[in-house]
Description:
single chain, mainly beta, 13 strands, 36% strand, globular
Amino acid sequence: MKPPIKRSVKTLGALTVAAGLLLGFAGSAGAAPGTAGASGTSSFGFAHRTVTAPDGQDFHLKLAATPTSLPAAAGGTVDVAGTGYNRGQGIFLAFCVIPEGVTVGDPATYTTLPTPCLPGREDQDGSSRRITDSATGTPGITLPYRAGGSFLTTLNIRPEIKDGVVCDVDVKCAIVTRADFTATADRSYDQYIPVSFSR
């Protein structure tokens, strides 16, 4: 029983750190994601943008993840926190290929659906989440927003994003948010935090 307790405490601690980083993260619309870590390693990733909903309300989307550098052999678990999202619009949180033409940190280039992504249909897989207040879904995969359009969760990611396609070898990949299937063509909620795999 001790290992699960340790993992639970570790996860809670990391998520608390990520949430704290988000609360203290200051940026402007279209601010480029950044990373910070000791000895040049990428420990934390950030993304921020401001979007305007059809009703004219502004939402200041902030996203943080840690760690953003993982071992190439097995990948790992990343703690992710978000805040400021529009609770009226569900999102997908996933690990996806960064599309050609996208410049991370420049929302004006976010014109293409990020794909392919790691599948996450099974709760135990944990490689994607749907965050929404408007529908029920698979426990552990579909999560409700918290206050302020926030969320805290984890993603289990690996470098082979699909058969024969490997991140940092064939493509560049990132933790992303995007509007869910209720608004697939809406690029307003696209955000990217690049992830690298050390070899």
